[in-house]
Design goal:
Shape: globular
Distance between the termini: 42 Å
Radius of gyration: 18 Å
Number of strands: 0
Strand content: under 5%
CATH topology of the largest domain: Hypothetical Protein Yqey, Chain: A, domain1
Number of domains: 2
Oligomer: single chain
């Protein structure tokens, strides 16, 4: 898959640039991302997948960002500001490789359009709406942000 290769090339280029700049924190984060990619590749082997699609890579990166947000919040509760700052620095590096997210207004408009396109009228049809959103917006859409909005709109 051409897209997956270019995303991988971006990670490799980012790691090399960080190494040349002697940016130890960025190098460590990039190596962590590369290790995650290797884990994704290994997990995909039994399925016969030779090139993991960008969507899977992006989903894994979003998961990494989410866990770091949670960790930073816990560190702040524990008055460990330096550890929270470290997590946030990792978030910034990882988010640099993620596609730009839809803003709140665009997300709301996309959800409204998907509800209208599917004719969904109840929570039982949430899956159809989510599938339409994913098909229409792919990597630009964080499904963890879209889900609660779809739920709220279908509940009324």
């Amino acid at each position: 898959m051409e897209g997956a290769m270019s995303l991988r090339e971006e990670f490799t280029k980012g790691l090399k640039a960080a190494m040349l700049a002697h940016d130890a924190a960025r190098v460590a984060t990039m190596r962590m991302v590369m290790a995650k990619l290797k884990d994704i590749d290994i997990a995909a082997r039994p399925r016969g997948v030779t090139a993991v699609p960008d969507e899977e890579i992006i989903a894994a990166l979003r998961g990494m960002v989410k866990s770091r947000h949670e960790s930073a919040a816990l560190y702040r509760q524990g008055k460990r500001e330096e550890l929270a700052a470290h997590e946030e620095a990792e978030i910034a590096v990882i988010e640099g490789f993620l596609p730009r997210q839809l803003d709140d207004a665009a997300l709301a408009a996309a959800v409204d359009a998907a509800i209208a396109a599917t004719g969904a009228a109840s929570m039982k049809e949430m899956g159809k709406v989510m599938a339409a959103l994913k098909a229409g917006h792919g990597a630009d859409l964080d499904m963890s942000r879209a889900g609660p909005l779809v739920k709220a709109k279908l509940a009324h």
